[in-house]
Each structure stands twice: as structure tokens, then as C-alpha cells.
Amino acid sequence: MKKLVLGSLNIDRTYRVTDLVKPMETIAANKYESYCGGKGFNQAVALARAGSEVFFAGIIGSDGDMFWDALHSDAIKTDLMRKSESPNGHAVIQVDEEGQNCIIIVSGSNEKVTETYIDEVLSHFSEGDLIVLQNEISCVGYAIEQASRKGLQIAFNPSPLNKTIQTYDMAKVDILLVNEVESKALFGSDDAESIQRVVNKKYPGTSVVLTKGAAGAWFIGANGKTYYSEALPCSAVDTTAAGDTFTGYFLHELSRSDDPSEALRVASIASGISVTRKGASPSIPFGKEVREFMKKTFAGMNKPN
């Protein structure tokens, strides 16, 4: 199985603050940092560090050349990437002293993804391969349609939420990865049993991965089986890459073992490690570190719901 991430490349501009800014308030940042990021980039890095061979497709901007080296440093294949003369996408990220964040995204070159480009990218993949999508680029609905037509397995993280998502044929998605906010918006609930009822009715072939931070994570299978994993107890420093780390590790482990329970457990540990560090992509652990952590300190994390 070849693994393709078709996604965003954002320059993360991170401002560390005492408290997240409120309406009508002006505050001073305690520190400023800049990293390579974007949900597509971060998920590709997590997938690669977990142990997968990863192909990346996306559009960098005129100021985005740093992404070539950043992706190559994790052995991610970039032959399918293209460059636009538009400014690169970027994100304005606030992180408070509790590690919580709020993010504003400027799409930039991520909006230059076209149907023609998607056709070119998908021509290199075939039935049974995996495509990982987020909602930070243009033409996501078209990518879902064409990937399904070719028989690819589709994993979709519908973030950020917007009205365009309502036009996507979610029934063609194999694995939908959502947090509690996204779950409430899409399914009207963040309860696993309620989600299962909605999904079985509207998208009977779709499995859902639900992450709820410290409350843990669920896999709600299209086959009717549900699995649960506790979150790794930890003191959060920065939660920016928690979801993307989880996504990459979950998809790697599921493709390797075909065991949702084990995939949840490994992804929960990797995500838990990531929140103890600053930054998005710099916080994503390598597979060796996750395996060593599991051997030394963790057991009994999984339990059926």
C-alpha cells in the first residue's frame, strides 16, 4: 500500500501568551517562534516518523522553499509537490501557559490546488493505496470523488470546518477523523453511540475516529464494533500538533496491524508525548521513542466501549 498525503503547507507563526487574547483586548506575546506546519505537513511528518513511506502532494508558495528540506529530513517523497508564485499559506497560532491554542489560517498557495493537479497526482496511485486529506486546501470534494473512483482508501480530517464540507460525499470516505467540536458539527453529538447511529444511517461504509483530548479516543467501526483508548496522562505544554500526531500514528498502525484497538493505543501515546513539547512538527515523536515508551511505562490502555 502506497500512502499519499494531499494537503496543506503552512508557515506556523506561533505566539506564546499568558492567556489567549479576548475580544477588544490587546496583549503582548511572551515569545514568538516560526515553524513549518499545516495539517497536511504535520500529518505527513507523523506518518513518516511512525514508520511509513510517505508521498506528499501540495502547493508551496513563493516564500515556502523551506518545506523541501523539512520534508526531505523525514524522508518524505516530494516529487508530486508544485510551487506557486502566490504567498505560502500560514497560520497565526496563540498558545497559552496551559498549552491550549487558537489558530487562524491564511490559505495562500494551498488554494492553488486544482482538479487538473489532483488528476495528475492520483495518476501515480492505484486501488488499495491510501490517501490522507484535510480541509485546508481547495478541491477536497473533487479529490474524494476521484480517489474513490480509483479505489483508494480515503482518510479525511474535516478541519477546519466550513460550509463547503456539506457538499462533500462523505459516504465515499473510509475513515473520518474528528475531534469533539467537529463531531458535534457533523453528527450533532460527541458521544460514540450517537455517532454510530448517525453514521450507520448516512454513511454506512465509513468508520469514525473520535478524539477528545484528555478524555481519550474512540474508533467507531463501519462493522459496528467500537474501541476505546485512554489518553496518556501528561502535563500539556503545547497541543497544536496533538491531533495531527494522532492521525499519522493511527493510520500507520492500522495499515500495519489492521487492529483498531492497537492503533488507538499507539496513537494516543504518540499524541500524548507530542503535547509535552513546544511547536507543531518539532513536537512529533519518532516511532522508536514511542515504542521505547510503551515498553518501559505503559500497559493496559485499551478497553472496549
Describe this structure in words.
It is a single chain. A hairpin with a 5-residue loop joins strand 12 (207-211) and strand 13. This protein is 32% helix and 23% strand. The chain is built from nine helices and 15 strands. It has a single domain, classed as Ribokinase (UDP-N-acetylmuramoyl-L-alanine:D-glutamate ligase, 3-Layer(aba) Sandwich), CATH 3.40.1190.20. The strands form three sheets. Strands 4-1-9-10-11-12-13-14-15 form a nine-stranded mixed β-sheet, sandwiched between helices. It has a four-stranded mixed β-sheet with strand order 3-2-7-8. It has a two-stranded parallel ribbon with strand order 5-6. Helix 8 packs across helix 9. With 305 residues, it is an alpha/beta fold. The radius of gyration is 18 Å and the shape is globular.
Layout of secondary structure:
Elements lengths: L2 E4 L3 E7 L14 E7 L1 H12 L3 E4 L1 E2 L5 H7 L9 E2 L5 E7 L5 E6 L8 H8 L7 E5 L5 H10 L3 E5 L17 E5 H8 L4 H11 L4 E5 L5 E4 L5 E4 L12 H16 L2 H15 L12 H11 L4 E3 L1
Number of helices in the DSSP assignment: 9
CATH topology: UDP-N-acetylmuramoyl-L-alanine:D-glutamate ligase
- What is the radius of gyration? 18 Å
| Amount of beta strand | 15-25%
The CATH superfamily title:
Ribokinase
Task: Give me the side-by-side strand order of the main sheet.
Answer: 4-1-9-10-11-12-13-14-15
Please give the CATH class.
Answer: Alpha Beta
Question: What's the shape?
Answer: globular
Mean pLDDT: 94
CATH architecture: 3-Layer(aba) Sandwich
- Separation of termini? 30 Å
Count of individual beta strands: 15
Q: What class would the helix/strand composition place it in? A: alpha/beta
List SSEs in N-to-C order. Answer: EEEHEEHEEEHEHEEHHEEEHHHE
User: Percentage of helical residues?
Assistant: 25-40%
Largest sheet: 9 strands, mixed
| Poorly predicted spans | 300-305
Number of domains: 1
